[in-house]
C-alpha cells in the first residue's frame, strides 16, 4: 500500500498536479503519434515524395542550363 500512497501523494493529491500530468502526457502522446505516423507514411511512400525525386529534377535543370 505504501507505493500507491506515495504515488497518490506525489501526483494526484492536488488538482494542479493532475492538470500538469495531463498536459505533459498529452504532449508526449501527440509527439509519439506524430513521429510514428510520419515514419510510416514516409516508409510506405519511399521514392514517391518530393524530397526523394527532387535531385532528379535538379540534374535535368542543370543540364538544360549548360546547353
From TrEMBL:
Gene3D superfamilies associated with the record: Cytochrome b-c1 complex subunit 9
Gene Ontology, cellular component aspect: mitochondrial inner membrane; respiratory chain complex III
Keyword terms: Electron transport, Membrane, Mitochondrion, Mitochondrion inner membrane, Respiratory chain, Transmembrane, Transmembrane helix, Transport
Disulfide bond recorded as keyword: no
Pfam families, sorted: UCR_UQCRX_QCR9 (PF05365)
Membrane-topology annotation of the record: Single-pass membrane protein
Domain of life, source organism: Eukaryota
Any one GO biological process: mitochondrial electron transport, ubiquinol to cytochrome c
Any coiled-coil regions, as ranges: none
Membrane spanning stretches: 12-29
Subcellular location(s) of the protein: Mitochondrion inner membrane
Subunit structure: Component of the ubiquinol-cytochrome c oxidoreductase (cytochrome b-c1 complex, complex III, CIII), a multisubunit enzyme composed of 3 respiratory subunits cytochrome b, cytochrome c1 and Rieske protein, 2 core protein subunits, and additional low-molecular weight protein subunits.
Job description of the protein: Component of the ubiquinol-cytochrome c oxidoreductase, a multisubunit transmembrane complex that is part of the mitochondrial electron transport chain which drives oxidative phosphorylation. The complex plays an important role in the uptake of multiple carbon sources present in different host niches.
Family classification: Belongs to the UQCR10/QCR9 family.
Protein name, UniProt field: Complex III subunit 9
Lineage, broadest ranks: Eukaryota, Metazoa, Spiralia, Gnathifera, Rotifera
